[in-house]
Amino acid sequence: MEKEEGRCFLNSLLNKNLRILVTDGRMFLGQFKCTDPDRNVVLAHAYEYRQPSAQQRAELSRQTTDGSGSVTIDMTSRYLGLVVVPGQYIVKIEVEEFASQIRGQNPYADVVI
């Protein structure tokens, strides 16, 4: 990817919501503000989501009495505000887009009134 092409791509992501997964299993969800040559990413209005600990998973599986063997556990979250995610720990970045945000498509095209 050429420098100018990369710059245009990053500009297209400005102020969009990104989901960033890091090496320790945490996920950050926030509004993309900037990045740098070291791949650090700055998110505004960010939330951090954590997987439940092994102890929490074991405790909830013991409490399950329905016999199905499957347990659903929610991730814990907290509001962080403005956060820098170090590039060296980033595993995956996803852009959160809804049908109404995708260009060239009308989300109400199938609606009959």
From TrEMBL:
Q: What CDD domains does the record tag this protein with?
A: LSMD1
Q: Which GO terms describe its cellular component?
A: NatC complex
Q: What InterPro entries does its record include?
A: LSM_dom_sf (IPR010920), LSMD1_Sm (IPR034110), Sm_dom_euk/arc (IPR001163), snRNP_SmB/NAA38-like (IPR050914)
SUPFAM superfamilies the UniProt entry points to = Sm-like ribonucleoproteins
Q: Which SMART domains match?
A: Sm (SM00651)
Mind telling me which Pfam families this protein's record contains? LSM (PF01423)
Task: Tell me where on the tree of life, at the top rank, the source sits.
Answer: Eukaryota
Q: What positions does the domain Sm occupy?
A: 8-95
This chain belongs to the protein called: LSM domain-containing protein
